[in-house]
Task: inverse folding
C-alpha cells in the first residue's frame, strides 16, 4: 500500500515540508508517515501534479513517480497540442 509521507527535516512548525509517496518496498528511512489530508493540503498549496508510471516496459509494477508543478504540465500539454500529429504504420496517433 502506498502511503503519504514527508521528508524528515523539511518544513517548519505547522508545515509538513517536502511531500513524497512511500511505497511498500520501503519504508524509506528519510520519510515520515503523514495523513492524506496533510499530503493533499501541501499538494494543492504548491499547485503540484503527480506524474507516475503504472508498469515498466517489461510489464512489472513500477514505482516511478514525480511531483511537478501543474504549470509545467500545462505548458507541455500546450506545446504538444501545437506539434503536428503523425501516424505510425500501426495507425496510432
Result:
Amino acid at each position: 500500500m502506498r502511503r503519504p509521507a514527508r521528508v524528515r527535516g523539511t518544513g517548519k512548525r505547522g508545515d509538513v515540508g517536502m511531500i513524497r509517496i512511500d511505497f511498500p518496498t520501503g519504508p524509506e528511512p528519510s520519510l515520515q508517515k503523514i495523513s492524506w489530508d496533510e499530503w493533499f493540503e501541501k499538494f494543492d498549496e504548491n499547485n503540484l501534479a503527480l506524474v507516475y508510471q503504472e508498469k515498466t516496459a517489461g510489464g512489472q509494477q513500477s514505482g516511478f513517480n514525480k511531483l511537478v508543478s501543474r504549470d509545467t504540465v500545462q505548458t507541455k500539454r500546450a506545446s504538444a497540442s501545437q506539434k503536428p500529429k503523425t501516424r505510425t504504420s500501426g495507425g496510432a496517433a
